[in-house]
């Protein structure tokens, strides 16, 4: 069945792969990203291959911009039925060097941004008695990560918030699950390696039982299942995509 889907952070990396996969599943996909050009490229690539996608530039930490973006999707595609939140920022700062501004920015984008998008989508899902919410969290939110106290805190918050949404809306036909990846090959990861903030791939893979990095498509495939009709009894779950690195 064809549904209306919103993917935040859809302009790059995991969000790009998730947007493409949901479009290939037959859904109408709104690609939301603060980088409007990137969102446009992803939406154009989907439409060029026969899918249905539109791009919306939005900063997910801006309450009014999020409401306007979801209203634009609703106008174009009808009520929102699927939401995948992939938009986030990530970086490395030793805990005692994290400034309050930096801390607040991580909270605003990663945690408040996820909250604002879920809230903006819920009214349609409640009215339609059907909804699928998938948050992309992180293994850092499950077990911490060196020099990522701010990032880890936001991702732990995303995991707890997702479980709560699952409980609150379980009787309304809505599921909420979270996918915490470990290291997935993406522009975010490569930039961190280039900046010397993450070890080289050979070193990273030593910590992964699978012996390799993940790819965006492997996260997208799990999101696709969690957004499907058949996943209606999977709710409030933390579905790691991590090559066995977090058990
Ligand atoms: N790549 C990994 O190894 C990895 C591991 C664990 C978790 N994650 C999570 O997966 C998700 C995607 O990461 P990625 O690796 O694809 O990163 P990425 O940087 O390639 O993509 C993130 C996207 O989010 C967008 N974005 C950033 N701030 C935004 C804002 N304020 N409003 C709207 N859009 C915004 C960026 O423009 C970008 O297009 C993130 O939530 C990240 O925390 C990634």
UniProtKB/TrEMBL annotation:
InterPro entries assigned: NAD(P)-bd_dom_sf, Sc_DH/Rdtase_CS, SDR, SDR_fam
Catalysed reactions, semicolon-separated: a (3R)-hydroxyacyl-[ACP] + NADP(+) = a 3-oxoacyl-[ACP] + NADPH + H(+)
Subcellular location: Secreted, Cell wall
Record flagged with keyword Hydrolase: no
Protein's UniProt keywords contain Secreted: yes
SUPFAM superfamilies: NAD(P)-binding Rossmann-fold domains
Gene3D superfamilies referenced in this protein's UniProt entry, alphabetically: NAD(P)-binding Rossmann-like Domain
A Pfam family it matches: adh_short_C2
Record's keyword terms, sorted: Cell wall, Secreted
PANTHER family membership: 3-OXOACYL-(ACYL-CARRIER-PROTEIN) REDUCTASE (PTHR42879), 3-OXOACYL-[ACYL-CARRIER-PROTEIN] REDUCTASE FABG (PTHR42879:SF2)
Record-stated family: Belongs to the short-chain dehydrogenases/reductases (SDR) family.
The name this protein goes by in its record: 3-oxoacyl-[acyl-carrier-protein] reductase MabA
The organism of origin for this protein: Mycolicibacterium pallens
